[in-house]
């Protein structure tokens, strides 16, 4: 009897102690917050873009076969849209982002006009057409999380068709240049990452294609018209928006 009573008391005490322990607050803290991983721009990317370009061919100086110079006249002012693709790589260390990018564009940046030059009836028809261009550039800037601002510069090329024709009656003189010009590009832009893979950007570029010297067309008697130009320029500017996918 006594033994059974002792066992019963022990059991009651054990149950009470367990119930009391269950009611006591736990000493464990809240689970640790997940570590913050800063956004990184490092990696390869590809994308598409589209925009608007404009330029100025400068003034064109004309003279006849007697060496009489006509007043300089404004050249073509090409403008129009373009679209294409780009690919590149970014490497980020701290806030600084360095990279390289290449792009190629199909374009319809052009202008043409016909203008009477003088009382003798000399007429100028001028045209400039940029139908393709591209660049290979370095990029460098700094990032604030998902926002990137950068400068860019490097090699540029473009396919151009420049055409000047002066006519008077049945006589005419023609200067044509249809070739790929090379030069340089400088600019800058901003880019914003929507998530780990997709980003949007806006960018400005000045594309410099040096072309200088005196250009002369053939003369046909009796008018003997000669085209001379010391300021024909093929440089132009662009603004564009784009979307990139980062791997």
């Amino acid at each position: 009897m006594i033994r059974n009573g002792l066992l019963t008391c022990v059991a009651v005490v054990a149950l009470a102690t367990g119930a009391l322990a269950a009611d006591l607050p736990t000493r464990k803290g809240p689970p640790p917050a997940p570590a913050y991983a800063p956004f990184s721009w490092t990696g390869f990317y590809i994308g598409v873009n589209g925009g608007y370009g404009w330029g100025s061919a400068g003034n064109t100086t004309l003279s006849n076969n007697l060496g009489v110079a006509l007043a300089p006249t404004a050249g073509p002012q090409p403008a129009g849209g373009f679209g294409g693709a780009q690919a590149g790589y970014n490497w980020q260390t701290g806030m600084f982002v360095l990279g390289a990018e290449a792009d190629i564009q199909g374009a319809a940046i052009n202008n043409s006009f016909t203008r009477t030059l003088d009382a003798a009836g000399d007429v100028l028809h001028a045209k400039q057409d940029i139908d393709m261009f591209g660049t290979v550039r370095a990029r460098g800037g700094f990032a604030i999380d998902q926002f990137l601002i950068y400068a860019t510069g490097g090699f540029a090329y473009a396919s151009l068709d420049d055409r000047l024709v002066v006519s008077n009656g049945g006589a005419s003189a023609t200067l044509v240049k249809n070739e790929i010009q090379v030069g340089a590009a400088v600019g800058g832009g901003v880019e914003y990452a929507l998530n780990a893979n997709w980003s949007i950007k806006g960018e400005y570029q000045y594309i410099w294609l040096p072309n200088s010297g005196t250009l002369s067309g053939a003369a046909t008697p009796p008018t003997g018209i000669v085209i001379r130009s010391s300021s024909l320029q093929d440089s132009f500017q662009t603004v564009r928006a784009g979307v990139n996918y980062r791997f």
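Residues 9-15 have pLDDT under 50 and may be disordered. The longest helix spans residues 2-23.
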